[in-house]
Design a protein that fits this description.
Number of helices: 4
Number of domains: 2
Distance between the termini: 96 Å
Number of strands: 4
Structural class: mainly alpha
Mean pLDDT: 81
Shape: rod-shaped
Largest sheet: 2 strands, antiparallel
Length: 119
């Protein structure tokens, strides 16, 4: 390198990152630790955020619990899952929203909101 370039570089501290306010760290790692950098939610660049991801995972977990109990909710949305659990509790059997029936032979009428048991 030329002497003019090395003369310009003597006064600069190359260990710090460009956004460092103090420019007095002994190493680049020391500069990063001093900045207290944190890693954010990685999918936020895709328009997703951690809160919506947690909400979605909670809904899917509730849906898995329903399916494990033999219940088939209309959708994976929380209100539909809770409704299926309520109907199952009311009839004493697992509810299937695809045809509004229960595994004990009962039928649910969405118009009247009644559970009808056929004996």
């Amino acid at each position: 390198m030329g002497t003019a370039f090395t003369g310009l570089m003597k006064g600069l501290r190359m260990a710090c990152r460009t956004g460092c306010l103090t420019k007095n760290h002994s190493s680049y790692g020391d500069c990063l630790r001093g900045a207290s950098l944190r890693i954010g939610y990685a999918k936020s660049a895709s328009g997703l955020d951690a809160t919506s991801e947690r909400r979605k995972e909670t809904e899917l977990s509730l849906y898995r619990d329903a399916r494990a109990a033999g219940i088939q909710p209309a959708t994976t949305r929380t209100p539909d899952i809770r409704r299926a659990f309520e109907l199952s509790e009311k009839a004493g059997a697992a509810f299937d929203a695809t045809d509004n029936t229960f595994n004990n032979g009962a039928h649910y009428s969405p118009k009247t909101g009644q559970v009808v048991k056929f004996d």
